[in-house]
From TrEMBL:
Residues in RNA polymerase sigma-70 domain copies: 79-92, 255-281
The protein's name: RNA polymerase sigma factor RpoH
Homology family: Belongs to the sigma-70 factor family. RpoH subfamily.
Role: Sigma factors are initiation factors that promote the attachment of RNA polymerase to specific initiation sites and are then released. This sigma factor is involved in regulation of expression of heat shock genes.
Gene that this polypeptide is encoded by: rpoH
Subcellular location: Cytoplasm
Known partners and oligomeric status: Interacts with the RNA polymerase core enzyme.
Length: 287
């Protein structure tokens, strides 16, 4: 149901044609209360997707209006509108016409919720707000911050009092909001020029699957296995050694026919020699 409804919404352009999208959305007529109730009933009772489409399209202008209120976050208007459209579709899906309210009143929560999540995901690589209280402070602090630069002590006190939080919470959130993102991994140029003197955050992460003891054990086993393989190969005749190396160990592996042409024998004979040599290697490494 949700995927079908999502495909019904107008695709918000990511280029300069956003104006044309807005103009088209405002050209769609608004619904009367009676028509809205009829469409919502058809969707709620009969899963009428045509009714869902009309409900969504007629409310696109409201999503645009809400999205404009988030223009100060430095994010593309098209992205904000698209996220708001997702919230609108979720609201239409859950709307019950028997609740006695208009769809626009019910949908505003869902539209803002999707836009809020998008803003928080994109404001910083590391989220500035992880709890409900922090998110509320984040959006209210943005509204109260009238100028660039740090708050003065008086401004911190005023914001804390008006929002009903501690001054410490205000200062901590402001610090998060004004901090600069750091590249998680060094670029190729940084990697070439660093000469071991600079490190990106990614290089400080602990590998949860790393176990030094296991690594040492595996390295020792690999060295031991390679030594046994080398000893077992020496025990083979020159032709068998060449067949094993060219068929199994070289990067560009030879075919049975290529080795047959080389030794003037049949490909089947090469296969037999290869099988016998592998059995000898297996026995020699197990000894």
């Amino acid at each position: 149901m949700s995927e079908t409804m999502q495909s019904m919404a107008l695709t918000v352009p990511q280029s300069g044609s956003i104006e044309a999208y807005v103009q088209s959305a405002y050209g769609i007529p608004m619904l009367t209360a009676e028509r809205e109730h009829e469409l919502a009933t058809r969707l709620h009772d009969d899963n009428d997707l045509q009714a869902a489409q009309e409900l969504i399209m007629s409310h696109l202008r409201f999503v645009i209006h809400v999205a404009k209120g988030y223009a100060g976050y430095g994010l593309a208007q098209a992205d904000l509108i698209q996220e708001g459209n997702v919230g609108l579709m979720k609201a239409v899906k859950r709307f019950n016409p028997e609740m006695g309210v208009r769809l626009v009143s019910f949908a505003v929560h869902w539209i803002k919720a999707e836009i809020h999540e998008f803003v928080l995901r994109n404001w910083r690589i590391v989220k500035v707000a992880t709890t409900k209280a922090q998110r509320k402070l984040f959006f209210n602090l943005r509204k109260n911050k009238k100028r660039l630069g740090w708050f003065s002590n008086a401004e911190v006190s005023h914001v804390a009092e008006s929002l009903g939080v501690s001054e410490k919470d205000v200062m901590e959130m402001e610090s998060r909001m004004t901090s600069q993102d750091q590249t998680f991994e060094m670029s190729n140029d940084d990697d070439d020029n660093a000469a071991g003197s600079n490190f990106a955050p990614a290089q400080y992460l602990e590998d949860a699957d790393s176990d030094i003891a296991v690594q040492v054990e595996e390295n020792n086993w690999e060295q031991h296995a390679n030594k046994r393989l080398a000893n077992a190969l020496v025990a083979l005749d020159d032709r068998s050694q060449d067949i094993i190396k060219t068929r199994w160990l070289d990067e560009d592996k030879a075919t049975l026919q290529e080795l047959a042409d080389k030794y003037q024998i049949s490909a089947e004979r090469v296969r037999q020699l290869e099988k016998n040599a592998l059995n000898k290697l297996k026995n020699g490494m197990a000894a």
